[in-house]
Write a structure and sequence with these properties.
Blueprint lengths: L1 H8 L6 H14 L5 H8 L4 E6 L6 H15 L3 E6 L4 H13 L4 E4 L8 H9 L4 E4 L9 E5 L1 H14 L5 E5 L5 H16 L9 E3 L4 H12 L7 E4 L2 H13 L9 E5 L13 E4 L2 H18 L8 E4 L2 E3 L7 H9 L1
Helix pairs in contact: 4-11, 7-8, 9-10
C-alpha cells in the first residue's frame, strides 16, 4: 500500500514502469483512497469550504468557479454550501465545515449579524478564513472584494454624464458594508456634481426580488419620480425592472437605468442593460489563492490582507438618454 500511496500522492518518486502498473491496478480494481482515514493520520484533507448566501444569484456561482479553479491547481477540492442569507444557517454550515476537517474556509457573510465569536474560534483553531465580496466589520480577517466605493461612484457618475440629475439609488440592506460603500460612492459623485442625494432617492431593500419589486412600485407611484435609477446589486435590479413593468414604464424611454452585476438573461433585455461588472471569477480565484497561501505557508496569524479589485462599466442602451437612443436606432 505504501507504493500505491506514493503513486497517488506523488510524495515519493517512483519509476515510470511501476507507476503504470499501479495505475492499471487502480483502474481494474476501481480503487478509491480513504481520504478520511488519511486525514486522521496527517491532519490534511486537501479540502476547502465555501459558504455563499444564494447560489441562484449568478454572481456567486462565478465566485465558486474561480475558487475551484485555484484550488484544483494546487490539488485541493472545494465543498460549496448555501446559507440562504440566513444567520443561523450560516452558523450551522461553519460548524459543519469545521467538523468535516476542511483546511480553510471562503466565506460570503449573510446579511444577518456576522458570527464574530464563532469565526474567531475557527481562526484560533488554525483554520484560516478569507471573506469574499462582503467584508465584515470589526473582524480581523483576510478579504477579497471589488472596490465598492469607487464602483458606486463610477455608476452614478456615468448617469450624471448621460444627462440625468434626479437619480435614485436602489440598494440592498445597508447593514452590509459593501452596500454602504457603494452608496457612499454615489453620494460623493452627487455632492461633487452639486446636486446631493436626497433621502427619498435612497431606496433600501432586502435581497428578495419580490420584496424589492413591491418597494420600487411604491416609490414609483409617488410624485417626483426620478429620471434614472442605479441598482447596487443584481437581485435589486430585477426588482426594479419588474416594478417598471408593473407601472408600464420602459428604460430608457421613461427612465434611465444601470445596475451592478450582469443579469442572468441580460441578452434578452431590450434595450440592453448598462452594468457595473464585478470580476466575480477573479474574486473567487484570488480568495482561494490567498487561503491556500495561509494554509501552505503557515502564516494564518499574519496581518490580514485586503485585496480590492476594480469594477468595469459596460455602457449599454438602458442608460442612454431617450433622444440619443432613438437616433442610434435609426442609423
Amino acid at each position: 500500500m505504501g507504493t500505491v500511496s506514493h503513486v497517488i500522492t506523488g510524495a515519493v518518486p517512483v519509476t515510470d514502469g511501476l507507476r503504470s502498473k499501479v495505475e492499471a491496478a487502480i483502474r481494474e480494481l476501481n480503487y478509491h483512497p480513504n481520504h478520511v482515514a488519511r486525514s486522521l493520520k496527517t491532519s490534511k484533507t486537501r479540502t476547502l469550504g465555501i459558504v455563499v448566501p444564494d447560489m441562484t444569484i449568478p454572481f456567486f456561482p462565478q465566485v465558486i468557479s474561480g475558487a475551484e479553479a485555484a484550488a484544483r491547481e494546487r490539488g485541493y477540492v472545494v465543498i460549496a454550501v448555501n446559507s440562504g442569507d440566513d444567520g443561523e444557517r450560516q452558523k450551522e454550515l461553519l460548524s459543519l465545515l469545521r467538523s468535516q476537517r476542511v483546511e480553510g474556509i471562503l466565506l460570503v457573510v449573510a446579511s444577518a449579524p456576522t458570527p464574530q465569536t464563532q469565526i474567531s474560534r475557527i481562526l484560533e483553531a488554525g483554520i484560516p478564513i478569507v471573506c469574499c465580496d462582503r467584508v465584515p466589520e470589526r473582524l480581523r480577517v483576510d478579504s477579497v472584494s471589488v472596490e465598492n466605493r469607487e464602483a458606486g461612484r463610477l455608476g452614478f457618475q456615468h448617469l450624471l454624464d448621460a444627462g440625468y440629475r434626479r437619480i435614485a439609488v436602489a440598494t440592498g440592506p445597508l447593514a452590509l458594508r459593501n452596500e454602504r460603500q457603494r452608496l457612499l460612492g454615489c453620494r460623493e459623485a452627487a455632492d461633487e456634481a452639486g446636486i446631493g442625494l436626497e433621502p427619498d432617492l435612497i431606496w433600501e431593500g432586502n435581497l428578495r426580488v419580490e420584496d424589492v419589486t413591491a418597494l420600487c412600485r411604491d416609490h414609483l407611484a409617488r410624485p417626483g419620480r426620478p429620471e434614472a435609477i442605479l441598482s447596487t446589486n443584481g437581485p435589486t435590479a430585477l426588482g426594479v425592472l419588474r416594478a417598471f413593468r408593473a407601472h408600464g414604464l420602459s428604460t430608457p424611454r421613461d427612465m434611465g437605468f444601470a445596475t451592478f452585476d450582469e443579469l442572468t438573461v441580460d441578452e434578452i433585455f431590450l434595450p440592453s442593460i448598462t452594468t457595473i461588472v464585478q470580476p466575480s471569477y477573479e474574486i473567487g480565484f484570488r480568495a482561494a489563492e490567498l487561503l491556500l497561501e495561509r494554509i501552505e505557508g503557515g502564516s494564518a496569524a499574519a496581518e490580514p490582507m485586503m485585496v480590492r479589485l476594480p469594477a468595469v462599466l459596460k455602457i449599454r442602451e438602458s442608460s442612454r438618454p431617450p433622444d440619443v437612443l432613438a437616433a442610434s436606432l435609426k442609423q
